[in-house]
Every structure is written in C-alpha cells, then in structure tokens.
Structure prediction request, 166 residues.
Amino acid sequence: MGSPPLGKPNITSNGISSLISSATALHPSTSALAVTPNGSPAGSWMATLTQTLLGLAKLIPALLLWIITVTTITLPTLLFTLASTSLTFTMNATTLLLIVLAFASTISWTVRYRYLNMYARLPPEPQRKEPQIDLFPDMQERDSKPGLANYLDEFLSAIKVFGYRK
Prediction:
C-alpha cells in the first residue's frame, strides 16, 4: 500500500495519528505552537480578547451599514411600490350580496353565542324557600271601632285630613 496522494489524508486503523502526520506533512508550520501577530500564544486569553475585539470592530460597522441601507433605501422603496400598486375587484351584485350576508351572519352568530349567552354560563341559583303568606288573615271583629256602622263612615274617617269629622 503506497502513501496517499498529497492533499488526501489516509484514514486507516490508526486514523487520527495518520491524519495528524499527513497534516504536518502538508504544512510544517502547524507542528509548532501557533502564535498571534503580537507574539503571544494562540490559546491565551489575550489572543482571545484581541480576536473578539477585532471581530466586533468589523461587525459593528457592517451592522450599522446594513441598518442604514434598510431604513433609507429598501424600506422606502418597498413602501412606495406597495402604495403605487393599484388593485381592482370586479364582482356582480349577487356575489356582493353573498359576502354581505356571510359577514352579517358571522357577526350575528358571534353576538348571539358570545355575548347574549352570558346568563346561561352562570352557576345555578340556590333554591329559595317559598314565602309563607297567610292569604286569609284573621277577620277583625265586625265593630272594631265603635260608632262606625257602614263603609261610608269608615271611608270618611280614613280621610279626616280633609276636614270630615264625625
């Protein structure tokens, strides 16, 4: 079995070690510890902080440029295109009547079953006792007041306010 062609690593039973050996054969600088341009090792916190700050320094202007482009060019163009579009509907009276009928029946159904049905959802009312009313109260004696012999005298005695006195 020959060596693999340059650029294609040979993965065999000891796959990872042959992958590393072929990668170092392709780029000899990868065998040494990588360093950043300022001379610190690539795995240090300073390198991570530097790369993060450089990434933000590249990202923020690009993001601002995108926001400005969207708000000044794309959005006004879209709004102008939408506002200048004309839309025409043509329908006969029967179709218009069916649409109005469907709309009215939907509103009627909503009002009927959503709002006018509130009392049906109330909890049941507790049972009330029947009031005990004596329909035939004890009759007073015939002559409860002395001197009143007929209905006219009783009526006139009830309206003493008007000056009748017996």
